[in-house]
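User: I'm writing a tutorial on reading structure tokens. Could you give me a worked example: one chain, its sequence, then its tokens, then a sentence or two explaining what the tokens reveal?
Assistant: Sure. Here is the example chain.
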Amino acid sequence: MAYLTGYQYYENESNVPLDTNWGSYQYVSLDDIVNNFMLMYVGNDKLINNAERYNVIFHAKRGIQELNYDALKETKIVELSVCSNATVILPPDFVNWVRISLSKEGVLMPLTENIQTNFAKSYLQDNECRVLFDEEGSVLIGTSLLDADRISGMQKTQYLGDGKLNGTLGYNIEGKWVFDHTIGGRYGLNTETANINPTFKINKSSGVINFSSAMADQIVVIEYVSDGMEGGDDSNVSLNKMFEDYIYAYMKYAILSSKFGVQEYIVRRTQKEKSALLRNAKLRLSNIHPGRLLMNMRGAQKWLK
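And here are its predicted structure tokens:
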């Protein structure tokens, strides 16, 4: 890869935007990964005697995706406004969420995932409960009561709400909690669901996040793991240099395991190399730092009243 001068790194040679190269040195691009692999691992005197470039690109991208799924903790962060339907659309490269927070008065308040179902697809039925169809034979879809109750705040919840009734099931009507049971009718707190903040549930098939009604017209910050493919733009796909060896090992194993006539012991050797480097990548990602350990140990000797 080409090295950058200080002027190129900090000022991008006065081109706009100036921050294009900031932090870029710790990454290696997909193009560099493919070029390095073709030069160093493919040839008559190499373990892989021949390989088409398009095959190498395919396995390189799959390796980056697998690393993002299994190990990488470099998350993307997006800030969105939640509309009155208490729903936001997932980012296009969303794989899994790390943390979803309510942004209020400069403070991020982590939200809890709702273990209850708060959305559904409603089929229209006649008076005899038979499903109705259109002229083409497709099921007619109506308005889901679960969705309507969630948006209006009428859906029962086992979460704390304003934290006054120890998890008693109730309704949130115009920001005020109304309960079926009197205070003291239930005892104990379900610590699994104890949370004063709004809740969310991800509908992956529809590609949306459904929030409880308290999130309507609020700001949500979504921290999530991406697949690393940058929306299909290969020129923007990159990988941290710490995991470059793993990608090469993954590509060697993927290519050799699909080739005809390769001895099994060679395939097994490359598989073991790939697995060992993946474990090494996970150890590096654990990011155990003495400063963080000291911060966590500060309260170890504190007396509890």
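What the tokens reveal: Residues 100-223 form one domain. The chain has seven helices and 14 strands.
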